[in-house]
Every structure is written in C-alpha cells, then in structure tokens.
Amino acid sequence: MAREWESVIGLEVHLQLNTGTKVWCGCSADYDNSPINTHTCPICLGHPGALPKLNEKVVEYAIKAALALNCDVNKVSRFDRKNYFYPDLTKGYQITQFDHPYAEHGHIDVTLKSGKERKVGITKIQIEEDTGKSMHAGDESFINYNRASMPLIEIVSEPDMRSSEEAYEYLNLLKDAIKYTEISDVSMELGSLRCDANISVRPKGEEKFGTRVEVKNLNSFKAVARAIDYEIGRQIETIEEGGSIDQETRLWDDEVQVTRVMRSKEEAMDYRFFPEPDLVRLVISDEQIEAIRETMPESKVDKMARFARDYKLSTTDAAILCEEMELADYYEAAVKASNNPKTTANWIMTEVLRVLKEENKDITEFSITSEDLGEIIKLIDGGKISSKIAKKLFEIKLTDERTPAEIVEAEGMAQVADTGAIEAMVDEVLANNPKLIEDYKEADEGRKPRVMKGLMGQVMKASKGKANPTIVTELLIKKLS
Ligand SMILES: [Zn+2]
C-alpha cells in the first residue's frame, strides 16, 4: 500500500517599507523612478567608516506591521551583521536582526474554502536592509545602488502550513493586513513584497520534519502555490523511488513550471552573524507601542465583520467593499448621506465599480463624491426619481458639476406623482391595448403578474420612465378589476 504523505510549508516574506527615506541614511527611497545611482551616499554605499543611523520611521512602521500581524514587540532587540559577498552589497555584509528580532510570536488565522481553519504562527519579524540591483546586458553588468539600504522587514512563518491553498490564503491575509496599515505597497509586481518558500514532506503521522528545500524566484502568489505543488510532488516521487531529498535552494521557473537547483548544502553560506558594532540596541517603550496602536486603522477583518453586522450585508458584499480601505471609506460616507446601506452597497458594487473598471481608475479618482452618490439614492428612496432615471442621472453626474437635485430639476427628470396625470396615461395605454386587457382577465393567478408587468412597462414608456411605479400599479389594479 502506498504511504500517505504530509507536506510542511513555511514562508519567508520580505516587505519594503515606504518610509520615504532609507533605513540608515537620509537618501530618498524612490529608487525605481529615479536615474540610476542618484540616491546614494557614503552610508548606503558602505564606505569604510561611514556610520549607519536608524531611521525612526522604520521603527514606527515595523511596529505597525507587528501589531497588524498579532506579534509581541520586544522591548529590546539587536542588529546583527550577516556577512557575505555580493556585487550589489558593497559593505560585504547586510545589517539585519538574527536571534534578537524586534517582534515575535504572531499569527494569522487562515480559513480555507472548505471552511477548515488553521492558525499559522509567525515566528519573528526582523528589520533589515535591501541590497542594490544588478542589471545584465550581454557580457556587461551594471549595478544600481539606489535600492541599497532600502528598509525591509522579513516576516518568518512557522512551518504550520500543510498545502498550497493554505500558503496562498496566508499570503493574501498577510497582504490585506499590511495594506490597511499603509506601511508598504505590498506589490509582488513592484518588488515591494517578495516571498520564499520552505517545503518538505514526511509520512503522515510522523513528528520529525523531512529535509527541507528552499524555493526562490516566486513572482506571484499563484506562482508560490504552483511551486509548492510541484515541489511536494517532486519530493514524494523522489522518496518513493528510493532516493533522498537534498537540503538545497531551488529556483522556480514559471515558464516551464518546475524548480531547479540553485545551490546545494555544500555551497550553503556560513554568514558568521555577529552583533552589529555600529548600532546600539533597539529599545522600544510601552508608551511608544501604545501610541502607535492608537493610530492603527481598523483591520480589514474587523471592518468586514462590522459591515456585515451593522449594515446587514452578506460576507461576500462586505469583502468586496473592504477590498480597498478607500473604497470602504467611500461606502461609509455614502451611507451617511443616503441612510440606505443595502442600496448604497448595490450601487457601488454594480455602477461605481463598473465605471472605475472601464476608466481604469481607483475610487480616490472617481468623479462622483460619496455625498452625491448618497443624494442620488436618497432621491430614489424619497420617490423623487425612479431607479431607472437614477441610472441616467448617475451617467450625467459622471461629468456634470451640478448637484444631483439640480440636474433632476433642470433636466425635468423628476418622477410624476400627480395621480391625475398618471391616470390619463394609464387610460391611454389601456385604450390602445385591448388585447392585453383580455389577456389579463383570462390569465390565471400565476400568469397575471406577468401581464401586469407588460402593461406597467407600456405606462412607464409613455411617461418616459418618470411615472411613480407605485401609483401606476395601484391605478392598473383598480381599473382592471
Ligand atoms: Zn544613503
């Protein structure tokens, strides 16, 4: 009988902090949009004798990340030197945190599609610096040091995940949690979020971990999931064929969908960590942590729960509205103006998101303010305009400076609630449609509403969509019975 296997996955996530300046010097952190090697100084170029000074904002942002990921912030932590040679690392070492990181013992609660839940532990978060960037063109190589000493945090998970789906969900939740704190762009595309995966397999029921393989070069969350699935399959197959797994680093090739050896254990580096002599220990006070905790925005998870509870929305709708913090803010401001949470949610999810998609904009660039959207909904609820006319009003408002009420007034869009005027239209429609009246009288109870809808449609058409539908229905029922 074939053995049953269990996979063990841990993730290391690097996040760039958008603090504006680098971690040890005052150089601009706008490394990608500037001419190469323009944001450098003796400190981030690693000149001998140049002394690093810790950026206060980096500490603040790092604490925000720790709080967002349910970590304990250590009152005292230390920086260490990780020694290795790399052309884009001029100092010959990277300043990082090793065995005394600033944050530990966090977790992310992952819920899978099956409803199964798993608490994934976060071992530690450390503050460190980025390297420069090498570029290769044919036989020549170039180095851009704009990125050298960009502030990073590395978030190391416990080996708690058991499938690619869990890893994928973990990454999404981590991204959401950080995005709401606004400390990082969290974009894999832009390189502000990078992920490496540690993967091993073991026979089910076994306590001891199998030999783990580190996979790098993962450029999307989907690639992380695919690489994990590939690696699990490769490792099980190797063992079942009588082979063994080597502790090594492999690179994911997204085009061919395989992992390949990058370096084996024999080539593994000994980094000779030792305490960084140029920096004092990092001391963080309770007051500092509490002050930062107070500035933390409501988390996405909490906001979604509150939207579902207070505005009586489905979890799916709450998730859509909370996808971006700015969209959630827009929704809440619109609800304040409309006093109708459900209809406001529907308008945003259909009309507003449709326009944003068409125009390739985000909500902060949207031309209709939350107050104006709320007013449009209020005009519907107050019987001033029909929903159909409201769609027209919305389209006009996209490029019109006037208030929704002013447009309704000026364009003659107000709903006709004058019973006498509507009655005249109903009479005319009935006079022109004797066959529909016959139809209605002969129809059984199940079909009657359908015929009624047809007559309704005729009256609404005659009124150019402006007749109050409630009055139309009442009149039709009265006249047909
Ligand atoms: Zn610098």
UniProtKB/TrEMBL annotation:
<keyword id="KW-0067">ATP-binding</keyword>
<comment type="subunit">
    <text>Heterotrimer of A, B and C subunits.</text>
</comment>
<dbReference type="InterPro" id="IPR018027">
    <property type="entry name" value="Asn/Gln_amidotransferase"/>
</dbReference>
<keyword id="KW-0547">Nucleotide-binding</keyword>
<dbReference type="InterPro" id="IPR006075">
    <property type="entry name" value="Asn/Gln-tRNA_Trfase_suB/E_cat"/>
</dbReference>
<feature type="domain" description="Asn/Gln amidotransferase">
    <location>
        <begin position="329"/>
        <end position="480"/>
    </location>
</feature>
<dbReference type="GO" id="GO:0006412">
    <property type="term" value="P:translation"/>
</dbReference>
<dbReference type="InterPro" id="IPR014746">
    <property type="entry name" value="Gln_synth/guanido_kin_cat_dom"/>
</dbReference>
<dbReference type="InterPro" id="IPR017958">
    <property type="entry name" value="Gln-tRNA_amidoTrfase_suB_CS"/>
</dbReference>
<dbReference type="GO" id="GO:0070681">
    <property type="term" value="P:glutaminyl-tRNAGln biosynthesis via transamidation"/>
</dbReference>
<dbReference type="Pfam" id="PF02637">
    <property type="entry name" value="GatB_Yqey"/>
</dbReference>
<keyword id="KW-0648">Protein biosynthesis</keyword>
<dbReference type="Pfam" id="PF02934">
    <property type="entry name" value="GatB_N"/>
</dbReference>
<dbReference type="InterPro" id="IPR023168">
    <property type="entry name" value="GatB_Yqey_C_2"/>
</dbReference>
<protein>
    <recommendedName>
        <fullName>Aspartyl/glutamyl-tRNA(Asn/Gln) amidotransferase subunit B</fullName>
        <ecNumber>6.3.5.-</ecNumber>
    </recommendedName>
</protein>
<dbReference type="GO" id="GO:0005524">
    <property type="term" value="F:ATP binding"/>
</dbReference>
<dbReference type="InterPro" id="IPR017959">
    <property type="entry name" value="Asn/Gln-tRNA_amidoTrfase_suB/E"/>
</dbReference>
<dbReference type="InterPro" id="IPR042114">
    <property type="entry name" value="GatB_C_1"/>
</dbReference>
<dbReference type="InterPro" id="IPR004413">
    <property type="entry name" value="GatB"/>
</dbReference>
<comment type="function">
    <text>Allows the formation of correctly charged Asn-tRNA(Asn) or Gln-tRNA(Gln) through the transamidation of misacylated Asp-tRNA(Asn) or Glu-tRNA(Gln) in organisms which lack either or both of asparaginyl-tRNA or glutaminyl-tRNA synthetases. The reaction takes place in the presence of glutamine and ATP through an activated phospho-Asp-tRNA(Asn) or phospho-Glu-tRNA(Gln).</text>
</comment>
<dbReference type="GO" id="GO:0050567">
    <property type="term" value="F:glutaminyl-tRNA synthase (glutamine-hydrolyzing) activity"/>
</dbReference>
<dbReference type="InterPro" id="IPR003789">
    <property type="entry name" value="Asn/Gln_tRNA_amidoTrase-B-like"/>
</dbReference>
<keyword id="KW-0436">Ligase</keyword>
<comment type="similarity">
    <text>Belongs to the GatB/GatE family. GatB subfamily.</text>
</comment>
